[in-house]
Design a protein that fits this description.
The complex is a heterodimer of chains A (251) and B (328). Chain A is an alpha/beta fold. Chain A has a domain of 173 residues: P-loop containing nucleotide triphosphate hydrolases (Rossmann fold). Chain A has 10 helices and 10 strands. A 6-stranded mixed beta sheet of chain A has the order 6-7-8-3-9-10, with helices on both faces. In chain A, a hairpin with a 2-residue loop joins strand 1 and strand 2. In chain A, helix 4 crosses helix 6 and helix 6 runs parallel beside helix 7. Chain A is globular. The model of chain A has no long low-confidence stretch (mean pLDDT 93). The model of chain B has no long low-confidence stretch (mean pLDDT 89). In chain B, strands 1-2 form a two-stranded antiparallel ribbon. In chain B, strand 1 and strand 2 form a beta hairpin. Chain B is mainly α and 328 residues long. Chain B is built from 11 helices and 2 strands, in the order H-H-E-E-H-H-H-H-H-H-H-H-H. Chain B has one domain: MetI-like fold (Orthogonal Bundle). Classes of the chains: A alpha/beta (251), B mainly alpha (328). At the A-B interface, helix 2, helix 3 and helix 6 of A face helix 7 and helix 8 of B. Bound molecules: adenosine-5'-triphosphate and magnesium ion. The site of adenosine-5'-triphosphate (ATP) has 11 residues of chain A, from helix 1.
Chain lengths: 251, 328
């Protein structure tokens, strides 16, 4: 299986505290990779290295490489806004921008000057809202403030907003943990649909969700990758003792 | 043995107030009343000041037509002419020019501090701003006198005279640098720390998730500031401007030293002006033999107080609305 993202010898520290110790990973293309592990083991940190969000924190040092399509996104010739355009992020809590539903979706396209005519923007906004499964609910009130939507709808809006800049990769940091069960199912369903076209990396704490979503699993413990591989192998027949214990709910 | 919590050694059931408890309740009540008394003091003071001004200015308010007082253009106490319009317009001009000069750079500073600056830069600049805010008014006045007035006179006025001779508010009709512009420049510096810190605080109330939502789709920091943050904090910026303006309205000494104090209605930023606080500070206690003079000055003080009250109420309302806004 071809890998889309490769992480090589990645080390991250906050100040003097080392939170990722020599991480090496292969993330397959057009599959859903699920990152699991106990709280504080560095899942968010790892995910944030992939869209270069980690450097927004003061006092972080990052060493090693994150390759997307074989190109190191930390090399000096790389434009960070281009990285973030290609690597979308679905955050834990939905955060609509303080503007209308329409403007939320067109914001990224507008900034990257991806369209010319107003009509193209209208068509594109509709397309991405449909893709995120939100069009039926908001098609008639595109110019209402996005904050008026329910939390579940807001998360789908954030998905549409991310998809609108045509990323290749979608990152999700516990993207359903703030949602009710129905809305969660909705997002999960969308992620499964979208994996045909996108490489997806999701952090989750719910084992059942991991089993529903994962093609590929990464298990982390205290800043290290303990085990990674196809979902069936890791879930069915884990090689490492710590993975086994985690799957049995021992920590 | 330690008695269990709640058990009482005196009362039969332990729930009735004991003599000691009654005394404690009484002293608690006394303390509460003392605190309340001091808390009510500001309210009482404002009422007393307003009432005092009203009583002392009553002689002129009841005999001199209000219209002539507010809109009269001539101030000649010896001839019984008490038009306050030159002073009211002077105050408005100087405040407006000060605020207009101060707001744009202060916005840039506040945004820089909250969005771009490192923690170390921030902790270096903030005490300096506090220091700037602590400089006494009279020091700003002297500084204005020795640097701003000559600068306006020798550099800005000749330039404006040559560059835009026909633009109404920029006409140069008088020879000296004692002008609305000088007053405005001094005020601009004086209100800057307040403007910067209020806008900065408002920016801090914006959750980081919002910035990250914009950055996550590849927006630059500037795009995020322009399209997400500024629209979001606009009410807060307005509140800051109103606060700055109400501070500027009452500023006396520093302004009085650089604006020339000529009782005329300014028509250009290069005209001299005579703001209300300066009128009161310069004249109260002198020539009090002239009938109604003292009453007219206190009337001027009352008008100033009312203008500032209105501004403060406005700023409170706007700030309230900012705080009530839901960010998520
Ligand atoms: N901004 C920060 N500054 C300092 N330390 C941090 C920061 N963010 C995270 N850490 C530390 O880094 C380690 C890994 O944190 P991270 O958020 O990546 O864990 P996580 O696996 O996502 O945890 P959770 O499952 O609770 O979300 C933790 O020990 C945490 O305390
Ligand atoms: Mg996390």
């Amino acid at each position: 299986m071809e890998s889309h993202i490769q992480v090589k010898d990645l080390k991250v520290s906050y100040g003097k505290q080392e939170v990722l110790k020599n991480v090496n990973l292969e993330i397959p293309r057009n599959r859903i990779t699920v990152i699991m592990g106990p709280s504080g083991c560095g899942k968010t940190t790892l995910l944030m290295t992939m869209n270069r969000f980690l450097e927004l924190n003061e006092g972080v040092t990052i060493a090693g490489q994150v390759l997307v399509d074989g190109h190191n996104i930390y090399s000096p010739d790389v434009d960070v806004t281009e990285v973030r355009k290609r690597v979308g992020l679905l955050a834990q809590r939905p955060t609509p921008l303080p503007m209308s539903i329409f403007d939320n979706v067109s914001y990224g396209m507008y900034i990257h000057q991806m369209r010319k005519e107003t009509i193209e923007y209208k068509q594109a906004v509709r397309h991405y809202l449909e893709l995120a499964g939100l069009w039926d609910e908001v098609g008639k009130r595109l110019h209402d403030p996005a904050t008026a939507l329910s939390i579940g709808q807001q998360q789908r809006l954030c998905l549409a907003r991310g998809l609108a800049v045509e990323p290749e990769i979608i990152l999700g940091d516990e993207p359903t943990s703030a949602l009710d069960p129905v809305s969660s199912a909705h997002i999960e369903h969308k992620l499964l649909e979208l994996k045909e076209k996108y490489t997806t990396v999701v952090v989750t704490h719910t084992l059942r969700q991991a089993k529903r979503l994962a093609d590929h699993v990464v298990f982390m413990y205290l800043g290290e990758v303990v085990e990674q591989g196809p979902a069936a192998e890791v879930f069915g027949n884990p090689r490492e003792e710590r993975t086994k214990q985690y799957l049995q709910g021992l920590f | 043995m330690i008695p269990p919590i709640g058990s009482s050694t005196t009362g039969a059931t332990g729930w009735q107030p004991q003599p000691v408890a009654l005394a404690r309740a009484k002293s608690n009540e006394r303390a509460r009343k003392i605190f309340l008394g001091f808390t009510a003091l500001p309210v009482v003071l404002i009422l007393l000041v307003t009432l005092g001004l009203l009583i002392r200015s009553w002689p002129i308010l009841s005999t001199y037509p209000l219209q002539d007082l507010l809109f009269g253009e001539v101030w000649k106490p010896s001839k019984m002419l008490f038009g306050l319009l030159p002073f009211i317009t002077g105050t408005v001009w100087i405040t407006a020019v000060g605020v207009l000069i101060s707001v744009p750079p202060c916005l840039l500073v506040a945004i820089y501090l909250s969005e771009y600056a490192h923690d170390s830069t921030r902790s270096f600049i903030r005490p300096i701003l506090d220091l700037l805010a602590a400089i006494p008014s009279v020091v700003f006045g002297v500084w204005g006198l020795v640097t701003i007035v000559p600068f306006v006179e020798s550099t800005v006025m000749p330039f404006a005279k040559a560059a835009f001779p026909y633009i109404p508010f920029l006409k140069v009709d008088q020879p000296t640098g004692f002008s609305v512009l000088s007053g405005g420049l001094v005020l601009a510096v004086m209100i800057a720390p307040l403007l910067i810190s209020v806008v900065y605080e408002v920016l801090l109330t914006v959750p980081n998730d919002l910035r990250r939502a914009s950055l996550a789709i590849g927006a630059t920091q500037w795009e995020t500031i322009r399209r997400v943050l500024i629209p979001q904090v606009l009410p807060g910026i307005i509140a800051a401007v109103v606060l700055g303006a109400s501070r500027a309205l009452g500023e006396t000494i520093a302004v009085l030293m650089v604006v020339g104090n000529v009782p005329q209605i300014p028509t250009s930023i290069f005209d001299a002006a005579y703001p209300l606080p300066a009128l009161i500070a310069n004249n109260y206690g002198e020539m009090m033999s002239i009938p109604l003079y003292d009453s007219a000055l206190l009337g001027a003080a009352l008008i100033l107080l009312i203008i500032i009250l209105i501004f403060n109420v406005l700023s409170v309302i706007v700030l309230q609305r900012v705080k009530q806004r839901k960010w998520e």
